[in-house]
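Help needed: design a sequence for this.
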């Protein structure tokens, strides 16, 4: 979906296909047919943006097979779909029964991460619509915080500098500019936007910036205005934003609130949980840890890294951090010029919701994704952007 900002520039809205995990190129093609095109039809649009997630095997097939890349581009066009952004965070296995900590490997100190991301950039340059010259890729925020020493930090910085050089060469070759965005996430070396400033300024290249995920920002209790002001003052570009909402519990000391939270503790994904106190931020790596004993202070609200559907907040006594998303979006695109032109709805946890909230089949899932995109569209038009055909 495309929108015209009052300054005349185009802002792109997509939804991320990591909600339909596939490890192979055939699986990606099936996603377009079975999920993405039905969402587009529900929205009554001739064109729908998707943020592709390409696992390592699918990416390799595309970067080594020009015919495969041409075929994928043709399939996108045939089904009324377009790609300006990729989710390069998960490397493989995102559809496994247990993802948890595995999603952070390989990290930016491992050569595989550089090679995979460079491959994604080449693929994206070949998928961008004819009238679009700029693409974006979100990636993990360097590494999970453990086993990350000064040596690995320097290796990661070197890898990002090398990537920037390759992206320069890619633009020289193709005329397409691809930028890569570190996505701060709780528990990682870069948990907050402020954590991103030092490593990104050390890399020192405007092709490498930040992806503001509104669920992650809310989970870490970051103030949106402060976060975006800090980035602007440091000269760190917001290359992309993922529109998502975290799980919020206002009174976690109450037994009924803990019971409601327990329904969201599930074995597939990691749900880092945080609370803000006068002494600072406290957290656990997963929601079930927070619910065990006194692992987390319960005198203030808890937020958990669980991407809940944007249009459907959990039932009381829980809610979502949608107001944080709204605040961030206002800052990003509600001013005289957009701070980023790539927005991506990223709710990948539909099948990890409590059983009674999960979609039953493809049709209900498509209905839910279309409802999320409708909400995002309404937020954008309320800010003065005009939806384009």
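Sure. Designed sequence:
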């Amino acid at each position: 979906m495309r929108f015209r900002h009052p300054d005349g520039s185009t802002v792109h809205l997509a939804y991320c296909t990591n909600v339909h995990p596939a490890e192979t190129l055939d699986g990606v093609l099936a996603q377009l047919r079975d999920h993405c095109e039905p969402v587009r039809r529900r929205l009554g649009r001739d064109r729908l943006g998707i943020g592709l997630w390409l696992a390592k095997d699918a990416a390799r097939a595309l970067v080594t097979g020009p015919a495969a890349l041409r075929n994928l581009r043709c399939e996108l066009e045939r089904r009324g779909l377009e790609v300006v952004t990729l989710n390069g965070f998960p490397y493989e296995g995102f559809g496994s029964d247990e993802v948890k900590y595995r999603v952070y490997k390989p990290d930016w100190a491992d050569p595989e991460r550089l090679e995979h991301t460079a491959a994604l950039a080449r693929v994206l340059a070949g998928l961008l619509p004819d009238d679009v010259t700029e693409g974006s890729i979100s990636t993990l925020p360097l590494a999970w915080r453990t086993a990350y020493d000064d040596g690995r930090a320097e290796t990661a910085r070197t890898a990002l500098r090398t990537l920037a050089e390759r992206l320069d060469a890619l633009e020289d070759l193709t005329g397409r500019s691809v930028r890569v965005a570190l996505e701060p996430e709780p528990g990682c070396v870069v948990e907050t936007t402020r954590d991103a400033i030092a490593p990104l300024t050390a890399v020192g290249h405007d092709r490498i910036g930040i992806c503001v995920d509104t669920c992650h920002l809310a989970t870490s209790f970051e103030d949106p205005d402060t976060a975006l002001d800090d980035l602007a003052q440091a000269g760190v570009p917001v290359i992309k934003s993922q529109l998502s909402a975290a799980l919020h519990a206002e009174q976690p000391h109450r037994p009924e609130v803990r019971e409601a939270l327990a329904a969201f503790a599930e074995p597939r994904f990691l749900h880092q949980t945080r609370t803000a106190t006068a002494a600072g931020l406290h957290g656990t790596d997963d929601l079930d840890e927070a619910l065990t004993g006194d692992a987390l202070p319960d005198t203030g609200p808890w937020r958990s890294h669980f991407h809940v559907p944007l249009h459907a907040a959990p039932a009381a006594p829980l809610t979502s951090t949608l107001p944080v998303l709204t605040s961030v979006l206002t800052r990003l695109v509600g001013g005289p010029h957009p701070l980023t032109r790539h927005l991506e709805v990223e709710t990948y946890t539909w099948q990890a919701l409590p059983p009674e909230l999960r979609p039953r089949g493809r049709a209900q899932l498509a209905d839910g994704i279309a409802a999320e995109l409708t909400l995002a569209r309404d937020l954008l038009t309320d800010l003065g952007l005009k939806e384009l055909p």
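The longest strand covers residues 10-16.
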